[in-house]
Amino acid sequence: MELIQRNPDIRAYLAASEAIDHDHPLVRALADRIAADHPDAYSYAEAAYLFVRDTIPHSQDSGDPRVTWRASDVLELGTGICHAKSAAYAALLRARGIPAALCYQRLTDDDGADPMVHGLVALRLPGAERWARQDVRGNVPPGVDAQFSTGEERLAWTVRPEFNEVDYPVLYDEPHPAVLRSLHDAPDRPHLWRTLPTEL
């Protein structure tokens, strides 16, 4: 699948914003700590990926009812769904000058019911000819095995067209407005589950 930049200006994928607030002191401090042990772009991107994937639980897995949407809040509170964790990873990447985009899949249950929009990150390392999608959701439930990869994709889920699942090709420099609105307005995660978009 060919990934398509929604904004043709690569600088848009380095910018700080309300959701991807990599200018926040907490984000900058964490980026500096990771970079101290991983100075080159590839090893930094992988270490930041592992940090977000493994040390910040997905709130559904942990039972945490809190909803986060701003990268600094995800890192401070240590919780978030896939979209929030993606914002945190994008912020850590952008903090070190690595272009990062938000992108999405439409997934369903195994019977094709209960569609949901799943959040991913795409990054573009220095000298790379293409973007590489990453999934920082967390490897739960058992059998999910998302891994950092700039070659063959290692996402949590591969879409199943027979269930109308979709890989959306567009790379957003900001969270999709429908996703961000749901996160921003939700008082808790049960409410969020009822209001997240089911397609883009």
What does this structure look like?
Helix 1 crosses helix 5 (82-95), helix 2 (41-55) packs antiparallel against helix 5 (82-95) and helix 4 (71-77) crosses helix 5 (82-95). It is globular, with a radius of gyration of 16 Å. With 200 residues, the protein is of the alpha+beta class. The two termini are 17 Å apart. The strands form 2 sheets. It has a 4-stranded antiparallel β-sheet, with helices on one face. The mean pLDDT is 96. Helices cover 34% and strands 12% of the residues. It has a single domain (4-195), classed as Roll (C8orf32 fold), CATH 3.10.620.30. It contains 7 helices and 6 strands; from the N terminus they run βαααααβββββαα. A hairpin with an 8-residue loop joins strand 3 and strand 4.
